[in-house]
């Protein structure tokens, strides 16, 4: 059996188990086999994974959790339904590759973070594997069309899932979008698959808060750097991280919230850090 065949088999097995995995309370499995909507989103995810295989993806972009206007509807991280249908022509992603709306939500809604993320990825001609620390959509109790920060048990629940994806795709570089994703990668420690773990350090770059940083430099650094970078919160700390200089980390337990994605990829504004 060839390595490529083994990879496809592992991904098929992963998708089958993902579809039957129950979501914790106050969260939704977007790919659940229990509904026709979830089955359509699962096929979207399968097509996305197939495209990544064709491109020989080697980088994982790990976010926090699916957002209700993005992955919750489309089944693909940082991707809204309009993008799913129109595609990203310069990257030959989505669009005329069999992707479908699930039909669960009658109106087409754009997600600003998805527009920004794919705009910058297209400029870089760079398509990573996009996944989340907690793979299901966490919402506020009684408000399914809302977002909330995933809880620690949910993050622990999601860790073996993204570790399995890293191993299945033989990912060599990982960068985390936000403190939650960074902390989950750090907690994985020695459990990171060997494909992402050279002898002395995991091949991981964590996004800092990205305030004021250039999207070109930050994503390019993620593509090239094999080192572990701590999350940073100030402009000069971001610059120091990208230059490889020592930087002093500001201690904070506050979650990275709405400003993350725009500050990561555009250097300004306020957006949700959810796929």
Helicity range:
40-55%
Write the element-wise H/E pattern from the N-terminal end onward: HEHEHHHEEHEHEHHH
Structural class: alpha/beta
Please give the largest β-sheet. 4 strands, parallel
List the SSEs and their pairings.
Elements: H1 3-19, E1 27-28, H2 36-55, E2 59-63, H3 71-74, H4 81-86, H5 112-124, E3 129-132, E4 137-138, H6 152-169, E5 173-177, H7 179-188, E6 204-207, H8 215-224, H9 235-243, H10 260-265
Helix pairs in contact: 1-2, 1-6, 6-7
Description:
The chain has 275 residues and is of the alpha/beta class. The chain has ten helices and six strands, in the order αβαβαααββαβαβααα. A four-stranded parallel β-sheet has the order 3-2-5-6, with helices on both faces. The chain has a two-stranded antiparallel ribbon with strand order 1-4. Strand 5 (173-177), helix 7 (179-188) and strand 6 (204-207) form a beta-alpha-beta unit. It is globular. Mean pLDDT is 75; it is low at 198-222 and 224-273.
At a glance:
With 275 residues, the chain is an alpha/beta fold. The chain has 10 helices and 6 strands.
Task: Give short descriptive properties of this protein.
two-stranded antiparallel sheet, about 280 residues, disordered C terminus, 4-stranded parallel β-sheet
């Amino acid at each position: 059996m060839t390595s490529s065949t083994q990879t496809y088999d592992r991904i098929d097995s992963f998708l089958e188990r993902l579809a039957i995995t129950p979501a914790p309370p106050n969260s939704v499995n977007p790919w659940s086999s229990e509904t026709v909507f979830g089955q359509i989103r699962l096929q979207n995810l399968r097509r996305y994974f197939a495209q990544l295989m064709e491109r020989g993806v080697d980088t994982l972009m790990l976010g926090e959790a699916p957002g209700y206007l993005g992955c919750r509807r489309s089944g693909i991280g940082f991707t809204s339904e309009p993008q799913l249908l129109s595609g990203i022509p310069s990257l030959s992603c989505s669009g005329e590759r069999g992707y479908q709306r699930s039909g669960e939500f009658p109106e087409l809604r754009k997600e600003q973070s998805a527009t920004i993320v794919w705009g910058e990825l297209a400029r870089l001609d760079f398509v990573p594997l996009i996944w989340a620390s907690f793979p299901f959509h966490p919402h506020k109790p009684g408000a399914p069309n809302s977002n909330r920060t995933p809880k620690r048990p949910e993050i622990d629940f999601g860790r073996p899932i993204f570790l399995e994806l890293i191993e299945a795709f033989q990912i060599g570089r990982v960068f985390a979008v936000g403190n939650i994703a960074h902390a989950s990668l750090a907690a994985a420690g020695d459990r990171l698959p060997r494909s992402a773990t050279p002898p002395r350090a995991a091949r991981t770059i964590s996004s800092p808060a990205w305030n004021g940083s250039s999207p070109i430099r930050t994503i390019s650094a993620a593509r090239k750097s094999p080192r572990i970078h701590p999350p940073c919160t100030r402009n000069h700390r971001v610059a120091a991280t990208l230059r490889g200089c020592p930087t002093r980390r500001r201690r904070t337990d506050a979650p990275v919230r709405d400003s993350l994605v725009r500050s990561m990829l555009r250097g300004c504004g306020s957006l949700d850090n959810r796929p």
